[in-house]
Every structure is written in structure tokens, then in C-alpha cells.
């Protein structure tokens, strides 16, 4: 499955720790991330990650395009709800696309742990069947 990893600046450390903790599960999937987040996760885990631009420079929109074209199966987006983001319209659009295309989205650690356990069990394999994908 194709999995996106995104984090606002104040949440990057949390996402890196999450990726370290669940490295073995994430390693079974194709990983995508916005620029700095992807670099930090790769440095901490050695996992291969396709890096898009940073969020404010269009990375959120690039991931959104993958969602709209049925090329993304899940999104881990650790958001900072207490800090105004200069690219908030892009963030809102990305979340809206996840809703429109029924792409599972975790925006905090609690939901992320439930989603990652579902990935581990294969609970999201329905996406491949419903969307006509072959394999992951």
C-alpha cells in the first residue's frame, strides 16, 4: 500500500518517534512524505521514502494529487492544531480529499496507532480490491 507521512513542525518529532516504533510495519509499504518530514524519518529509520516538496511549497498538494488519482491508500498527518499554518488551505484540501476518496487519515497519535495496527493485520486490503489495484 502507498502511505503518506506528513507532520507540521511542532509534530515532526512525534512522527519520527512513531516511525521508529512501527518501522517494521511501515517497511512493508511504499512510503511518501513531504520534504523535511521525509528526510527526518529516513535519517532515523533508514526506510526508503519518496519525498515531495515541503508542505508550504506544494507537498501537501502533491500528496493530494496522488489521493485524487487513487495512488494513495492511507495518510498519517500529525497536525499542530494550536498553530496557524500559512498553507492552511492546502491542509484543508488534503483532508477533504481523504474524505472524498475514503482514504484513511490519522491526524494524531491515538488514531495513528489504530490505523497502523489495522495495516499490520491487513484490515485495509479492501482498498486494493475496491479500487482495482494489483498488489500493494
Structure description:
The structure is a single chain. This protein is an alpha/beta fold and 136 residues long. It has one domain: 3-Layer(aba) Sandwich (Rossmann fold), CATH 3.40.50.1380. It is built from 7 helices and 5 strands; from the N terminus they run βααβαβαβαβαα. It has helices spanning 12-21, 23-26, 35-45, 59-68, 88-100, 109-121, 126-130; strands at residues 2-7, 30-33, 49-51, 74-78, 105-106. A 5-stranded parallel β-sheet has the order 3-2-1-4-5, with helices on both faces. Strand 4, helix 5 (88-100) and strand 5 (105-106) form a beta-alpha-beta unit. Helix 1 (12-21) packs parallel to helix 3 (35-45) and helix 4 runs parallel beside helix 5 (88-100). The longest helix is centred in the C-terminal third of the chain and has 13 residues, at 88-100. The protein is globular, with a radius of gyration of 14 Å.
Strand line-up in the sheet with most strands = 3-2-1-4-5
CATH third-level topology: Rossmann fold
Radius of gyration: 14 Å
Helicity, as a percent range:
40-55%
Biggest sheet: strands, sense, closure? Answer: 5 strands, parallel
CATH superfamily: Methylglyoxal synthase-like domain
Distance between the termini: 4 Å
Principal-axes geometry comes out as globular
Helix-strand makeup class: alpha/beta
- For the secondary structure, the number of strands is 5
Whole-number average pLDDT? 90
What is the CATH architecture annotation? 3-Layer(aba) Sandwich
Provide a count of the helices: 7
The H-and-E topology, N to C, reads as EHHEHEHEHEHH
Integer count of domains: 1
Content of β-strand: 5-15%
CATH domain class: Alpha Beta
Amino acid at each position: 500500500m502507498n502511505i503518506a507521512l506528513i507532520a507540521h513542525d511542532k509534530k515532526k518529532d512525534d512522527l519520527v518517534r512513531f516511525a521508529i516504533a512501527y518501522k517494521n510495519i511501515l517497511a512493508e509499504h511504499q512510503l511518501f512524505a513531504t520534504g523535511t518530514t521525509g528526510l527526518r524519518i529516513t535519517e532515523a529509520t533508514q526506510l526508503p521514502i519518496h519525498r515531495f516538496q515541503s508542505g508550504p511549497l506544494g507537498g501537501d498538494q502533491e500528496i493530494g494529487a496522488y489521493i485524487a488519482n487513487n495512488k494513495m491508500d492511507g495518510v498519517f498527518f500529525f497536525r499542530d492544531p494550536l498553530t496557524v499554518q500559512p498553507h492552511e488551505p492546502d491542509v484543508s484540501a488534503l483532508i477533504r480529499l481523504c474524505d472524498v476518496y475514503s482514504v484513511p487519515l490519522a491526524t494524531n497519535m491515538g488514531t495513528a496507532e489504530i490505523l497502523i495496527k489495522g495495516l499490520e493485520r491487513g484490515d485495509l486490503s479492501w482498498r486494493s480490491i475496491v479500487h482495482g489495484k494489483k498488489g500493494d
